[in-house]
Amino acid sequence: APTAPDSEANPLPARPTGGGRSTAGPRLQNARPADDPLAVWLTLPVGPDGLTSDGTDLIAAMLSAGVKVAGVNAMTMNYGIQDPKNLVDVSEHALDATAAQLRDLWKNAGLDLPPGGVWELMGATPMIGLNDVPTEIFTLDDARALTAFASDRGLARLSMWSLNRDHTCGPNYP
C-alpha cells in the first residue's frame, strides 16, 4: 500500500529534516509482511532546476535512516515563473534535473538503482488547466507532450493535480 507524506502542508524548511518520518518509516516497513510491503513515495516540490535543497535533504535523511523509498513524485507545478513560455519544457528540464539528483542520492547512500534506472523511481504531477500561478496554464497539448516524455523516459507514475482544477483557485488563495 503506497503512502505519500504531504510535505506541502508543512513546508520542508519549517521542520527538522526528515524528523519522525525518517525514523518511523523503517519501523513501519519492517512491521509489514513480506508479501504486502509498504511502498513509500515522497511527493516533493520541484523548481525548474529540480528538487530544492530541502527536498534532497529529506530524501537523504530517509535513505540514511533505512527507509526503502519506492519513489519520488515531483510536483511539476507552481514554478513561479512570470513568463514560462512552455510549461512542458520547464517540466521536462525539472524532471531531468531531478533524475540526476536522485542518481546522486542513491549513489551517496550506497544503493543500487532499480533495473529500469532512475526513472523507475520517479513520478510527476502537473497542475492541469488554470493554475494558482496566473501565468502557468497546463493545456491538453501540454498533457499529451508530457505523457510522451514520460513514456519515452520510462517514468513510473504520471498523475495530475487535480480533476477539478480547471478553474482559478477560490478565495482561500489570495
Low-confidence stretches: 1-10
Which geometry do the CA atoms define? Answer: elongated
Number of separate helices? 4
Largest pleated sheet? 5 strands, mixed
Strand order of the largest sheet: 2-1-3-4-7
- Share of residues in helices: 25-40%
Residue share in β-strands: 5-15%
Structural class: alpha/beta
- Count all strands and give the number: 7
Give the overall pLDDT as a whole number: 84
Summary tags:
35% helix; elongated; alpha/beta; disordered N terminus; 174 residues; five-stranded mixed beta sheet; two-stranded antiparallel sheet; 4 helices
Protein model, in words:
- The chain has 174 residues and is α/β, with parallel strands linked by helices.
- The protein contains 4 helices and 7 strands, in the order αββαβαβββαβ.
Task: Give the arrangement of secondary structure elements.
Blueprint: H1 19-31, E1 40-47, E2 50-51, H2 53-64, E3 69-75, H3 87-108, E4 122-124, E5 129-130, E6 137-138, H4 140-153, E7 157-158
Parallel strand pairs: 1-3, 3-4, 4-7
Antiparallel strand pairs: 1-2, 5-6
Helix pairs in contact: 1-2, 2-3, 3-4
Give me a quick take on this structure.
This protein is α/β, with parallel strands linked by helices and 174 residues long.
